[in-house]
Amino acid sequence: MDKPDILRKIPSVDRILKNEKIKVLFKEYSYSLVREAVRKVLDSLRAKVLKDNFLEIDEDSIIEEIKNSLNKKYSLQPVINATGVVIHTNLGRAILPEEAIKHVVEIAQSYSNLEYDLEKGQRGKRYVHIVDAVRKIVNVESAVVVNNNAGAVFLCLNTLAKDKEVVVSRGELVEIGGSFRIPDVMAQSGAILREVGTTNKTRLSDYERAINENTALLLKVHRSNFKIIGFTEEVSVKELCELGKQRGIPVMVDLGSGCFIDLKKYGFYGEPSVQEVVDEGADIVTFSGDKLLGGAQAGFIIGKSALIERISKNPLMRALRVDKLTLAAVEATLMFYLDEKEAIEKIPTLRMILEPPEKIKRRAAKILKLFKKHGIEAMLKEDVSMPGGGSLPESGVKTYVIAIRTDKPDEFSGKLRQTQPPVIGRIKEDFVIFDARTLQEREIPLLVKAVKQIME
User: Fold this and answer.
1) What pLDDT score does 229 carry?
2) Domain range 80-91+352-455, CATH architecture
3) Domain boundary assignment for the chain
4) Spatial distance between the Cα atoms of 317 and 147, rounded to a whole number of angstroms
5) pLDDT computed for residue 178 by the predictor
6) What does the alpha-carbon distance between residue 201 and residue 141 come to, in Å, rounded to a whole number?
7) Do residues 437 and 86 touch, judged by C-beta distance below 8 A?
């Protein structure tokens, strides 16, 4: 059958809308929403006909696809992360703790004292809600929060070093996700980059020689998403802060992925805690809220009150500020850090990264058992998963996965991405793999249902 003949077999929008199976949908969805779904499905069908040599037209299948598309009411939707990457940037990074979600809902459905001082009965400041919380965890004078860490770095540089020099090691001119580079951020902020040292070696004397009457900041950037090993040398935060104090120049440290617990106790090295950097004398510290901290997307700026006050008064602060929902999530997440044990138990990011392999194996075995119950052939295998999000780049951790062998792993994965909710796994050779590290207990039945659905 020729393509024009196949195209003529595709029903019209009006014909589909008159179908009794479609009419019942008007009780749940508006007429315009259903009509738009019908149009999109039929347009997609025509595109497939034009691309393929032959395609059978089945009206019942068309109606089923329309129903499925209506179930996907929103573009932004929950997915099952079976990749094993805990802080998955493409999948929304951190899962919020239950208490943070409750606090967000509580603030979202009511008016709040966002910028109102309840004691004085007059206008207040929105950042008081997180300053006290931060100061309970870190010995720091003040704090503000902006939309993300790139915004935090930009705002600090624009406030403290516009048209002046910022000294930074050449080996710390990092690039983060989305081709976002420290030199580019610095250029846009109006600060002048003064790079010192070499890619692999920077000494304190390099900083000393670079300081002049136009130097505004000494900047240290934590290489959170890569490591330089071998013939290397770098200046510690403490050494740089001592130099800054001697010369009367503030020291700013961009941690990138901030963490409030000492991960060395749990076998993860190379990631300094926020407390360590503050105790070593840093005047300003910036870090993300949705990476190792495990909260909402935000950029923390903490440090000396005089510098924070200047940053807060920058007109750009209004453009970069966070809303009440982010503040609610941030405040609730910070509260867990008053008790390290509770933080690890209640903050999903920390719980998943630090979860013992034996516990992951038990969860994987549970999934495998359910697969077999439904006639799905799979196997349990040992593997390695990553924290992700540009954090702990050398810290691959032992995990357990459920692996399904298939001749067409790409096609299998593609079908999984079309289920409700979509399932995102990873492909390794001829296997589609589901890493139990990032699978939540509530998602296990949904995963089994999705796999069963596409294998029928």
Assistant:
1) 66
2) Alpha-Beta Complex (3.90)
3) 3-71, 80-91+352-455, 98-346
4) 10
5) 56
6) 33
7) yes
At residue 443's C-alpha, the angle toward residues 438 and 449, to 5°, is 125
Helix (H) or strand (E) holding 31: helix 31-51
Q: Tell me, what's the pLDDT at 177?
A: 60
Paired tokens of 13: 């929008």
Residues in the chain: 456
Count of helix runs (H) and strand runs (E) in the chain: 20, 17
- DSSP assignment of 423-434 equals EE-EEETTEEEE
Q: Which has the closest alpha carbon to 360: 405, 399, 309, 412?
A: 399
The residue ranges of the chain whose pLDDT is under 50 are none
Structure tokens at 257: 């992925």
Closest CA to 316 of 165, 150, 136: 150
CA distance 143 to 159: 15
pLDDT in tens, 49-79: 887 755 677 888 888 888 888 877 678 899 9
State how far the Cα of 412 lies from the Cα of 202, in Å rounded to an integer.
Answer: 49
Look up the CATH number of domain 98-346. 3.40.640.10
- A 10 A CB-CB count for 157 gives 28
Residue with tokens 């509770």: 342
